Amino acid sequence: MAGKLKTRVNSSGYKQFWDKDEERWVFTHRRVAEKKIGREPVPGEEVHHINGDKEDNRSRNLVVLKDSIHDRVHHDDPDACFRCGRSGHWAENCYAKTDFEGDAIDEDDDWDDEDWDDEDEDWDDEDEDDDDY
Predict the structure, then answer these.
(1) N or C: lower Cβ tally within 10 Å for the chain?
(2) Region Disordered: what ranges (predicted)?
(3) What secondary structure letter does DSSP report for 98?
(4) CB-hemisphere CA count at 13 Å for 63?
(5) CB-CB contact of 25 with 18 (8 Å)
(6) What are the residue boundaries of the structural domains of the chain, listed by start?
């Protein structure tokens, strides 16, 4: 019989769980994002909570961003596109070949925000409890 999963919220407000196999505390949002994209985020990437709620670790609320775009969204331009880092459009409508720093954008980088309602800045009610970690 499996034991209860040990969890905590760290001093920065992020949920973590104890991974028995790795014998260490793991950030829940990073593990969920890892499962979503099929790989671990690499150095130079950050996992971003789209709605700003550090405790909302549903896969549809997480996106893996290049460090510089993540910094731009949090500090310089909160309305920056998650895909290219420029203002004036949303990631779902982004056709840029390069990001705001001039680096090529991976064509396989499929950012999907179909559940996000731009008008209300809130999640659709459908599948409300999916991936609730």
Answers:
(1) N
(2) 101-133
(3) B
(4) 22
(5) yes
(6) 7-93
Nearest to 62 by CA among 39, 36, 80: 36
**Cβ(100)–Cβ(84) under 8 Å?**
yes
- For residues 87 and 96, is the Cβ–Cβ distance under 8 A? no
How many residues in the chain?
133
**Contacts of residue 118, Cβ cutoff 8 Å, sequence gap at least 6:** 90
Top-tier CATH class for 7-93: alpha beta
| 15-52: pLDDT as tens digits | 999 999 999 999 999 999 999 999 999 999 999 998 88
pTM (two decimals): 0.69
Rounded CA gap, 7 and 3, in Å?
A: 12
